[in-house]
Write a structure and sequence with these properties.
The strands form six sheets. The protein has a six-stranded antiparallel beta sheet with strand order 4-5-6-1-8-13. A four-stranded mixed beta sheet has the order 3-16-17-18, with helices on one face. A two-stranded antiparallel sheet has the order 2-7. Helix 8 runs antiparallel to helix 9, helix 10 runs antiparallel to helix 11 and helix 14 packs parallel to helix 15. 48% of the residues are buried. The protein is of the alpha+beta class. Strand 4 and strand 5 form a beta hairpin.
Amino acid sequence: MTGRVIGTEIEYGISSPGDSSASPIVTSTRAILAYAEAHSGGLDRRTRWDYEPESPLRDSRGFDLRRYRSTPVIDPNALGAANLILVNGARFYVDHAHPEYSAPETTDARAAVIADRAGDLIMLEAARLAGQGLGATDKEKAEARAKAERAGENPDAAHAGIELKIYRNNVDGKGASYGAHENYQFRRDTDFDAVIAGLTPFFVTRQVYTGSGRVGLGQKGQEAGFQLSQRADYIETEVSLETTLNRGIINTRDEPHADADEWRRLHVIIGDANLSETATFLKLGATSLVLDAIEDGVDFSDLKLREPVDDVRRVSRDLTCTVKLQLDDHVTWMSAIDVQREYLRRVTPYATDDVGREVLARWGEVLDLLADDPLATAHRLDWTAKLKLMEGLRQRAGIGWDHPKLALIDIQYSDIDPARGLYHALVKRGAMETLVTGEEVAHAMAQAPRTTRAYLRGGLLRRFADDVVAASWDSAIVEVDGDELVKLSLSDVRGLGADAVGDVLEDAASMSEVVAGLRDRGLAGLNGT
């Protein structure tokens, strides 16, 4: 499907070096509120997230585990529930004690990389603003003033700043893992059993280019060693609805955030938080092409693995990318690279645009390099870049994998601050390939993608934020003429982009004119008159 809707979600690691006892719920909330205070006209009035359409416990296999309905609207400043809808169409909020950036919807892998990378800059700015005291509660401000007075300093100059460090990773080294999720829209009439059969071997083996690298084996890193993926040790079953326990290779959440009669959303939780733009591009682009093939009826059942859950760890712990995996026929053995090459061959006919063809080219190049010498990809992939840095130190210092300096490199690589992060140091010295420009990423911080409903969602906030009462992925509640509330349907993900609504949005002088323009065209669930 050319133009498949793609989006990412990143839960960032967060710490406060100046206060090791600080709760991550508190620090995450501070980061979100700091950004909100600087960019949303303060904390007293801003658009709230509408939880009413959400159904995270509905399963693609045909059942629903909901025992309750969530509160439709929650205070966007609440501790542990801070929430912000951004002018670029993204959602920026606290999720499971982590700051999360859910990127706006895009329609190709390259645009998705840009939107995803914009989240790092937004997160970095949020940390900087929190350090300046923005987002602080009245209690925190009073405590800062009192501390200044006790120190004989001017209390009027005091601020409740908090130092925050932000990491794009998936593990805390203490047994916890947090997500770097992917989302792909696909047709409702696609057989979900075919999705499971087609994607399971693909997800197990794509780690050879999507892994972000990790020091330590086991959920708590209790064994010395290095592995390709940070998520591998947390995958416990083949298929599952859960995202925080009993995690599956395939997640079955059926929450389309679109017309449920026509679409599903594949929610992928097995992936790593990549800094490498090549890894992110291949992760999103290759998966989208495999879905194209599955939707078209291409059969991947002959690639079924005999032990897929165990194979997740086998692939992750094989630094040579040569370990053989047994297929379900009990006869055939293939390496992860072999499996990926077979996927590449079968999906080639579905790369019908420039981005798709670039995915194929880079996918093939990376697989060839990995087959020759994995470290030959150190200028392109996260796990090999990390491994090269660490092997250099191990040889110079004569240390083993249990040495704390290696764990330090692991965490420093994922620091999103360009002044500190080792990934960014590699980029600066030309040792890591990038695919998008800094200008494109900076633009994406404030401008929504033009090909999806994110354009309308973000544009409403950019032009008339005071009139947007609440919003979600597939709806927005707006105020017209100061007293009438109108609910706009955003369920048509690809039908509300700049081509469809750009002139309505940009030419309007008020929210009432936007609503009138949408109604005239029969868009956003408004019937023409």
